[in-house]
């Protein structure tokens, strides 16, 4: 075994797989640039760190389960004029996540609520945050299954490992009392601890009705509203526009 092979094996054993893989190339760069010992030591560390960051972000992206590749860059503010690019860009320093605030996008179908939610989630992933996307339907089912197994607490603990949970299309489906209770538990465990993005077709004024003015639901709404940035979107459905113009 050559010295180079032995050294690469050592790095691999120390779980520095990026250094191990790139060692010949890194050595060549050091020689070509007549690097100082310190600069070379730093180059090795940088290589490993860079590769680990990259893997971490790729893992976060996979776990996020974004349902479609929607980018903010593709969002047309000439069509959707009830929110401005400035308002959306202001969210991208992710102060709202750091301050454990929520975003709520309210509006009729097709106005871009889910697009914005996924677009923001994408940027949050790029910035290193752990994100999870769920439709309200999926989430309610997931909580129900956990609850039936007596594992609701465990499930909530899993969910709060994410910095940001997107709940899409809240308010479309009728929910049992148990489902509302489970959702309340979720909102409770996220409150002032993690961030939510909600999209909904219901104005908050309708939510009492949606939740049957229930003594479980009203606190849910209060908690979501408290510490929320609420965006009320209107206008024509983009789907309809595409049908008629293209
Ligand atoms: P909502 O969630 O409000 O029902 P979506 O975000 O799913 O609406 O939008 C419907 C479709 O139209 C999606 O394919 C989305 O990418 C697209 N869309 C909606 N609004 C815009 C917009 N302003 N610019 C570009 N695409 C848009
Ligand atoms: Mg939607």
TrEMBL record:
Q: Which GO terms describe its molecular function?
A: ATP binding
**Which UniProt keywords are listed?**
ATP-binding, Nucleotide-binding
Taking every annotated instance into account, which residue ranges of this chain make up the domain AAA+ ATPase?
A: 99-231
A Pfam family of this chain? IstB_IS21
Q: Name one GO biological process term.
A: DNA replication
Superkingdom: Bacteria
* SUPFAM superfamilies with a match to the protein in the record: P-loop containing nucleoside triphosphate hydrolases
Q: Which InterPro entries match?
A: AAA+_ATPase (IPR003593), DNAC/IstB-like (IPR028350), IstB (IPR047661), IstB_ATP-bd (IPR002611), P-loop_NTPase (IPR027417)
UniProt key word Plastid: no
PANTHER family associated with the record? ATP-BINDING PROTEIN RV3427C IN INSERTION SEQUENCE-RELATED (PTHR30050:SF4), CHROMOSOMAL REPLICATION INITIATOR PROTEIN DNAA (PTHR30050)
**What family classification does the UniProt entry report for this protein?**
Belongs to the IS21/IS1162 putative ATP-binding protein family.
What is the protein's given name?
IstB domain protein ATP-binding protein
Native species: Alkalilimnicola ehrlichii (strain ATCC BAA-1101 / DSM 17681 / MLHE-1)
């Amino acid at each position: 075994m050559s010295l180079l092979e032995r050294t690469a094996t050592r790095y691999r054993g120390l779980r520095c797989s990026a250094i191990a893989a790139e060692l010949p190339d890194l050595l060549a760069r050091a020689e070509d640039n007549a690097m100082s010992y310190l600069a070379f030591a730093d180059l090795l560390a940088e290589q490993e760190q860079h590769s680990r960051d990259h893997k971490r972000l790729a893992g976060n992206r996979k776990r996020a389960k974004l349902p479609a590749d929607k980018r903010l860059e593709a969002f047309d503010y000439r069509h959707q004029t009830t929110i401005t690019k400035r308002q959306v860009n202001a969210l991208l320093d992710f102060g709202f996540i750091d301050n454990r605030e929520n975003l709520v996008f309210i509006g009729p179908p097709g106005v871009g609520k889910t697009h914005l939610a996924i677009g923001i989630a994408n940027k949050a992933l790029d910035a290193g945050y752990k994100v999870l996307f769920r439709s309200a339907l999926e989430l309610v089912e997931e909580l129900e299954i956990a609850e039936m197994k007596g594992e609701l607490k465990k499930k909530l603990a899993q969910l709060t490992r994410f910095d940001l949970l997107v709940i899409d299309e809240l308010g479309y489906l009728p929910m049992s009392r148990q489902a509302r209770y489970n959702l309340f538990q979720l909102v409770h465990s996220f409150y002032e601890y993690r961030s939510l993005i909600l999209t909904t077709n219901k104005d908050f004024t309708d939510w009492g009705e949606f939740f049957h003015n229930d003594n479980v639901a009203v606190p849910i709404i209060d908690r979501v509203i408290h510490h929320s940035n609420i965006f009320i979107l209107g206008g024509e459905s983009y789907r309809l526009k595409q049908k008629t113009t293209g």
